[in-house]
Design goal:
Elements: H1 2-14, E1 27-30, E2 35-43, E3 46-59, E4 62-74, E5 77-89, E6 92-100, E7 103-110, E8 115-127, E9 131-144, E10 148-161, E11 164-176, E12 179-189, E13 193-202, H2 209-212, E14 214-222, E15 225-230, E16 233-240, E17 244-249, E18 255-263, E19 266-273, E20 276-283
Antiparallel strand pairs: 1-2, 2-3, 3-4, 4-5, 5-6, 6-7, 7-8, 8-9, 9-10, 10-11, 11-12, 12-13, 13-14, 14-15, 15-16, 16-17, 17-18, 18-19, 19-20
Length: about 290
């Protein structure tokens, strides 16, 4: 199945004649009209249908490829339209634009080394049998076709997993499919506080995370105040409007701090600890 997928993609990118690709039960191909229609085309066990228009031309000595699709159906998911723009320069294929509603991606493929780098951002309303809610995913994948790594973060809002209702589920992940290490997992439950978890996930078995999950910390929410009990830290924190937050630590280094959000996760921070008062700028970088 993977071979069919890469054959299909590279045929379009290279502008080769399509004779070897035509399977009567899978696709219709109109080379004169530069049009392809897929009807339940099977790739990796997924049934794909849709109409596609493409262009392959040389521009400035490089091969330019444009693909536009509409009424795309992948399994139970439907996309009204999408656009793909790629340029081949030597052995490198640059994917400059890959967009659909709620989805964007870019990257490059080294055709000689058979390696790639790809970044994507996706946002959608999930209403599957097991997971429901507003879902947001940002990820980066890199490496060879046969052995690559993936990192990113995942957020779900106002949703449910089976009968388990949550306000927010957030996690950062890293690994080589199908197994990922999950870090900075935060689960916010309605009226019950914030739980931090750590564990692994095998995407071949989504239930594998919960048996392996470990409770790292627990934060209680009382009238806007968060009580946190992380390793080496116990205290209270509270947001004050959109720009300020206040934090008091009872253990560890102790002390109190007031932060003002300047912009783009840059904070002006006033910290009082013992006899010292420190004013500085805190810069946070989020993937």
């Amino acid at each position: 199945m993977k071979k069919k997928l890469f054959t299909f993609i590279f045929f379009l990118l290279l502008g080769l004649k399509p004779g070897f690709l035509l399977y009567a039960s899978y696709a219709e191909f109109d080379p004169a009209g530069r049009r392809i229609r897929l009807a339940e085309f099977d790739i990796g066990g997924h049934q794909i249908s849709g109409d596609f228009n493409y262009q392959v031309k040389k521009e400035g000595g490089h091969l330019l490829f444009l693909l536009e699709g509409r009424d795309l159906q992948i399994g139970e998911r439907r996309f009204d339209s999408f656009t793909l723009k790629a340029v081949r320069r030597g052995n490198i294929l640059f994917i400059e634009k890959f967009e659909s509603l709620g989805f964007s991606g870019k990257g490059n493929i080294d055709l000689k080394e058979k390696s790639f780098l790809f970044e994507l951002a996706v946002r959608w309303q999930e209403d599957a049998a097991r997971l429901k809610g507003e879902v947001e995913l940002k990820a980066k994948a890199w490496g060879s076709f046969d052995n690559f790594l993936v990192s990113g973060n995942f957020n779900a809002y106002d949703g449910a997993y089976d009968d388990f209702v949550f306000e927010r589920l957030r996690c950062t992940f890293f690994g080589s499919p199908p197994v990922f290490n999950l870090n900075d997992v935060e689960l916010v439950l309605p009226g019950k506080g914030i739980f931090s978890l750590g564990g692994t996930l095998d995407i071949r078995d989504p239930d594998s995370f919960f048996p392996s999950a470990e409770l790292i910390s627990h934060k209680l929410l009382v009238e806007g105040w968060h009580f946190f009990a992380d390793e080496g830290e116990v205290g209270l924190s509270k947001r004050i409007g959109d720009k300020f937050d206040f934090r008091v630590e009872a253990e560890g280094e102790g002390g109190a701090q007031l932060r003002y959000n300047l912009e783009n996760n840059n904070f002006l921070k006033l910290r009082m600890q013992g006899d010292e008062t420190i004013l500085g700028v805190e810069r946070r970088r989020e993937f």
